[in-house]
């Protein structure tokens, strides 16, 4: 990585606009981290403005061999936007316009820097929502959601960004601007570059605009909470719920360690002997919502159910969510620097996964808290360690290794919605087919021949 | 294309198995056509059996520069499986096993040669369906559905193959077997090769296995038929239906020319002055179905509505569908060799599209019948001509050119679910971004370096 000399900095200022450039390390530092606790100093930060400016920037980076790392608002958890090999961090925070909302065609056109929450608010006024709703919706951008295919709890019914994006505009690593996809929900002209870019973590192209598929807001929503004696009963209930026709719009699980955490720090209102809790929500037309709630409630009644509570009023809903909402502060209190993974296994293997994780916790002496999006089999595995304790870090590394081995043995995937970034690069070669990895690298070389777009991220090395 | 000498034929027989090889032109001929009325004689036909055999076949084709054209059961409409540059047609009809159905994980694993209808029947026994349901379901294969991303009427609610496929196994044009995707509904490790292969018409790889996402069968279905004074009223109703929360599982349109065809050959039971008909179906839990029907019925009541009929019994449903079902035989009677396009426009532009098509029909003297999947804006435009009349063919070519220009001006796409094949190759360069086309060719070169997989199909030439 070449030094950014005073001469090059002046060139850059001329190309991208002086008001769109930071080069003072003190200014650049806040753009060098994400939520993975990794941090590296960018050589410069550029604020994306428009296609012309971005093309000039890409050409500059190609000429001088400077890495270019696209960044939303830094809520990623895998270091994907951390400039570990140096380079320019490209912040999309100023390209934050909602360009069009077209209710009759169920679509919105947006720039990548708009936050998920602001988009939801704007389309809600027209009676719609965009299905992906990561927990960080208030502060994460659509560009970031597309980069990691981040979905959140609603995905169980409404899908991920790949299922809810119709087309993109982007700039390749050669500086070429191009469009992908269609304005319609059907279309099969040319290869599907839209979904190829989604989930590619800024390694193939810089997304400058997205056409998003909107879904009409449901009229009504109902909440249920089911408490089980053990995780296997809860897992059986998840399978039963997913095998009947009413698909819930949220199906979240908490394991016994999670319940124990909450009980210690916030007081628990679940029955004694609780080994797992499911939070379930259904949505739909107001006239049908009670029947939907009843159908899902019936499916939740498997052997091992200790209590099933149905909420109707806002106060009852809040009471049911209290345990789940208390979990995050409790975790922060005990282990502010916990390791949070987002593995996925087929729904039918979830009980097996969590039981093995509990065994792993006993063997390793590391407390592991599991919760997450059970309807997709997407479990957030939290290792409660102090990363400043070298011994704990070593044990955690061994433990994580075992978690990943377990997930792959169960037919799962190492990331549901957080992506690979730097954090999981060393592991994903064990999941991906080696021929497929070679093809991915070959594709990368076509989109980014100079290798400037987020180098060293997302893809594992090619195995010989 | 080299000649397949007796020596090469003997090599081939040894590699793929003599019982899996046809070389007599009389035997090969039936494998040289599809439903586009194009036909060309394959130099040989091979019946796919397993990965080992297919790898040997690919290596043979690479060594001797022989095109290899994957084929399901020949129901395609664009000539994508017609060996126009010679080569070996690879029929998947014997790789037709349903390998696994896993209700708890909502998935099925299948070989590409199984027909859509047989899969639907098998998964229905477990309480599920696979969303894509092309009209040719009885005789089209899953491999073909994946090759063209073919969906059918249900896509308006349940999506296309790209939305309903979790992973694939495939063999590249270099003879490498690889796996893509996951067994779960979330996953973001590596680039999305699954959806890249779907819709690529056998030009990137040979699909040997697919993991399909299943959806629970709805308990109940209801049918509505809405008749409008003109196409604009019907188009407004489609927009209104798509803007409210109950998404129908079918939303089909017929224009005035379609109604006129039916009235002449089968007798029409719609009110006088009918200019367009919508066939609407809703599905869902039995307890909610009446409300769903009512909600959609209310949305269908826009100015220009002449009649709204709701069916409850099977006999009433059949009566409502009578007009729509009479259309295909009526068309076959009038113009057995009609040209059938499957363009798509944003739902809000559908009225404009059909009005302009009516004007085009008047100007060109060609009768144009429009019907199709209105909820996706996917209109089947039928030019009723006799392709054996040279003058008609010339006028039809001019007319088609105008149809495609119109569709692109309205923000649409030239194919919703039939694909490009040979038939639309000359046109899709006008829709696709030229940089994207260059990238698609670059991707093709990575998957198929020798250029043996279905050469000359799907992608337009690179524009200089």
TrEMBL record, chains A, B:
Pfam families: FAD-oxidase_C (PF02913), FAD_binding_4 (PF01565). It comes from the Bacteria. The keyword Zinc-finger does not apply. Residues 38-217 form the FAD-binding PCMH-type domain. Keywords: FAD, Flavoprotein, Oxidoreductase. One of its GO terms (molecular function) is oxidoreductase activity. InterPro entries: FAD-bd_oxidored_4_C, FAD-bd_PCMH, FAD-bd_PCMH-like_sf, FAD-bd_PCMH_sub2, FAD-linked_Oxase-like_C, FAD-linked_OxidoTrans_Type4, Oxid_FAD_bind_N, Vanillyl_alc_oxidase_C-sub2. Its cofactor is FAD. PROSITE patterns: FAD_PCMH. Belongs to the FAD-binding oxidoreductase/transferase type 4 family. This is D-lactate dehydrogenase.
